[in-house]
Design a protein that fits this description.
The structure is a homodimer of 363-residue chains.
Chain A lengths: L8 E4 L1 H14 L4 H16 L10 H10 L10 E6 L2 E5 L5 H19 L1 E9 L5 H6 L6 E7 L20 E5 L7 E5 L6 H10 L8 E2 L9 H6 L1 E2 L11 H19 L19 E9 L6 H16 L15 H13 L1 E4 H13 L8
Parallel strand pairs in A: 3-4
Antiparallel strand pairs in A: 1-11, 2-3, 4-10, 5-6, 5-10, 6-7, 8-9
């Protein structure tokens, strides 16, 4: 395909893009099976329209860290503790995606037997979009949960120290004819990348996004980039910022403390550069048939989701979405027409291919 | 005790208050064991400083509904489905608190055996604070989860129909020397009661709280009371309102759809008056020792929570709290000095005692 979508994007064939991502990772020493998983997760993110977590990160988050020795391409992954309903895995400072996918598979197996199971992974690295792992539950008529702590960007309510990652939480729940409900959200109001975008455009930030380094709210992106992100709900407590802060801390506990991994101020700051194995993940799943017949449940899910989608719109809006719907529609569209890749990212992938002496066969 | 705290509050002895609440419920036909549970949950709320969910609701939420035949004081509670890791209960349109407490007890028993378990209750009524049930996991070295859908007050992002309750989510995680982490929050930015308080004081609302009946954001409490609450994150998507909407819908699915109870537009509006058995609850628990030695985990929880509490404060703030800390300190203080009861609530309880020909022996 590779037609030009706009002047800023080119369209790539999904299979080509995955094959190329996997070939890059294999070239820097990642096992083929692991590389294929990373490629699947990254391209799934681009398919869903979440460019920030897709192939754009291949070089900076993964390849460069392997080449600089910060991330082990052939990690020793160990099961630290296992029961019929739980699993704790040490990722051996490897890529996050393969260990996350395999841990979620084992959790789904366990939940298939026991009805409900949870798992955690420590000593890992960035694993892409949390929603990918939660969605693995859908085909099995289970409800899936996935989360991860991250590099620190955010401050707690009433505080100015940077102590919390963007700490996403994801839940996936199947429906019948409707797309599944897939809620996947950062527990900060916005990601740090949004401050950078506003900085480049010299646009003032929205209230509730960030504080300066002294702990005052700021709308200046350059000042905010030296400060901290605010939790969902914004500054102080009037907009519910303490709730977002609580959710961010919940994620750090479920990932970092429960796994015996890094948590709180032991997590890296962005300025620290890559820190081996400081990231932890959390997963869960439980069976719908422990409560109801899954077919009845999914028929009711259709009713529930349609009830929201078909309700009255605010002025100036012609659609109400449910969580995961936009990403589902993006996936359908991008599967048909090609995966949009920003020209700068496209150029970066070509440059990476040349550096690694690999063909760039993406159309 | 019953000393005067301020001109607005009197202090009640905890045991007297519980005994009185239980005696009122027994007088209107509730079994003694059930009445004792309701009394414990309501007074726990007042002890924690959450007046809105405490004895202030005894008459309007519970007694009046029993007396008007809207709520069954002697419900037939049935187990609809049960597996080693799950439980679905029909509350028979009884009080929410007894069925919720007993369901969570059974979930904790199940999780003690299997490692992880979930439960749901349908055809129920308001159950007080969600945190009470999540906290039942703490003594067992488990992580507890509780949620409930509610009467409808809120609109989805880009919408103006009232489709979502305040739908609280609660998580309780034990620590060692520090108070437990207890996150218990409504997924709307504020409760409807806050609009009423601002209306009485003729104060403008904060941004992000409410819309008018046409779907425009409003700061006028009187206009907002005819409109709808906004989800956590506020109006539109810039402040993350779609995340709060997603959380609210998640709760409605886990409670209403998973239980086969009422959900979405089938939930009552406040103006509908009490609707029998339209409320559903959701519970979960899993064992910490499936991941780590609980003593080590709890020691790390102390480190995690202290790391936040001892971090640098914003200008004008001398404390950073972690979720549940304020409520824990309120409980200690109120256990020592007495439970604060607003004079209007106190008068209401006395009036109720007179109506029911019961002694009001609260000091």
């Amino acid at each position: 395909m590779a037609e030009v979508l706009t002047s800023e994007y080119r369209l790539a064939r999904e299979s080509d893009l995955k094959r190329f991502v996997a070939s890059v990772l294999e070239r820097v020493g990642v096992a083929a099976a692991d590389a294929a998983i990373v490629a699947d997760v990254l391209v799934a993110s681009d398919l869903r329209g979440i460019e920030s977590h897709g192939v754009a990160r291949l070089e900076s988050y993964y390849v460069s860290r392997i080449r600089s020795g910060k991330l082990d391409p052939t990690p020793v992954v160990t099961t630290v503790r296992e029961t019929p309903a739980s699993l704790l895995v040490d990722a051996g400072n490897g890529l996050g995606h393969p260990v996350a996918k395999r841990t979620m598979e084992r959790i789904l197996e366990k939940a298939g037997t026991t009805g409900a199971a949870f798992g955690a992974v420590r000593n890992s690295n960035h694993y892409g979009i949390a929603g990918y792992y939660a969605m693995m539950a859908l085909d099995r008529d289970m409800i899936g949960i996935a989360s991860t702590n991250t590099v620190r960007y955010g401050a707690p309510t009433f505080g100015r120290d940077i102590l919390l990652g963007t700490n996403p939480l994801a839940f996936a729940i199947p429906a019948q004819s409707e797309p599944a409900f897939v809620l996947d959200f950062a527990t900060t109001t916005v990601p740090r990348g949004k401050l950078e975008v506003y900085g480049r455009k010299e646009k003032p930030l929205n209230a509730g996004w960030a504080i300066d380094e002294n702990g005052h709210e700021t709308l200046d992106p350059k000042v905010a980039l030296k400060g901290a992100l605010l939790p969902l709900g914004g500054f102080g407590v009037e907009g519910g910022g303490h709730k977002g802060y609580g959710l961010g801390l919940l994620v750090d506990i479920l990932c970092g403390v429960l796994s015996g991994g890094a948590f709180g101020a032991d997590l890296p700051l962005p300025t620290d550069g890559p820190q081996p194995g400081k990231i932890s993940h959390f997963f869960g799943a439980f069976k719908i048939d422990g409560f109801r017949d899954p077919a009845q449940f999914k028929a009711d899910m259709d009713t529930e989701l349609r009830g929201f989608k078909e309700s009255a719109k605010s002025p100036g809006h012609d659609r109400i979405y449910v969580a995961g719907e936009i990403e589902y529609e993006n996936t359908l569209k991008n599967r048909e027409h090609g995966v949009p890749v920003h020209v700068k990212v496209w150029d970066g992938l070509q440059k990476l291919a040349a550096e690694l002496d690999l063909p760039f066969e993406v159309e």
